[in-house]
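Step 1: inspect the first sequence and its tokens.
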Amino acid sequence: MTTQSGGDKANQPAPFLSSVMQIEPQWIDYNGHLNMAYYNVMFDRAIDELWLVLGIGPDYKKARNNSTFTAECHVRYLREIHLGDPVQIAIYLLAADEKRLHTFEELRHADEGWLSATSENMTMHVDIGLRKTAPFPPDVRTTIEAVAKAHASVAGPEGVGRAIGMPPTK
């Protein structure tokens, strides 16, 4: 993974596409497919790649003592992924304000394009010294706004805002 941050990478097409990832053998569970915990590992790795583009990766934490924490996450498992399947994650930055980022991720088979899982997240910007939410600095906010604007120009993904619940009985 690269350690670049900000710059003209913020002007890339929407949605953001992660690097292609491979399923690791130890991630396969006794059902013969990717264990649910490792979907989150891959979603997290993809978010880290986007954070580098936004300028809020590890170097940002070291330099400014700020970071991000996930406040909420909703994962949907739609189709099994198996050992040997290459995957890529598309990330939509749906909304942002002074302290929060609302993202939606789609994990797809990298060669065949079918959707395996989605993850919708609310992320908070945090002052590490205080361990409290804090506004993004103006320069970072400018980059975030540019990416959010680019992502708003494409059709939103299916499944945003879904809630968990049993279907009504007849």
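Step 2: inspect the second sequence and its tokens, then contrast the two.
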Amino acid sequence: MVLDNLYLIVAITEKSNAIGKNNDLLYFLKEDMNFFKEKTCGNSVICGKKTFDGFKIKPLPKRNNIVLTTSDFSFEGVRVFNNIEDLIEFVKENPDEKFFVCGGMSIYKQLIGYCSKMYITKYEEKEIIEADSHFPEIDEKLWKVTEKVEGKNENPKLTFYTYERI
């Protein structure tokens, strides 16, 4: 079941779909961080506990922060769900809210099937970058690129893609 108000946002390497190493992002580039902020501010972000723990500012300001985890976790100002079924029900009950899935690898794999749109920043990858977490392959039978914008950053070069369900 695809939900019209559930989106995914991620930064990956263009060849290997790498997203992180040692529970951290591969890059902290201002242009990409601004893109993330522009898309998610005023909306809800959904992530796992490890991703939440990695945020420099917790909870992320000007957003409803949602953590999906099976661990016993609580944090002031954060809504916690312990299973996907309850989270999906909450998203369905709030059709006017935009929800952005923002990591990590396990959360992307669990929720990509429910998302109607993906915002993907691709980093130029001259050689395969060492990483321990990767984004799933994008099935081109299910997704089409509806927007592609070249970033200004030069090293590495960034391209911002919007994918929508076919």
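Step 3: confirm your contrast with the notes below.
Residues 48 and 106 are 8 Å apart (CA to CA). Helices lie at 30-40, 49-54, 84-93, 105-111.
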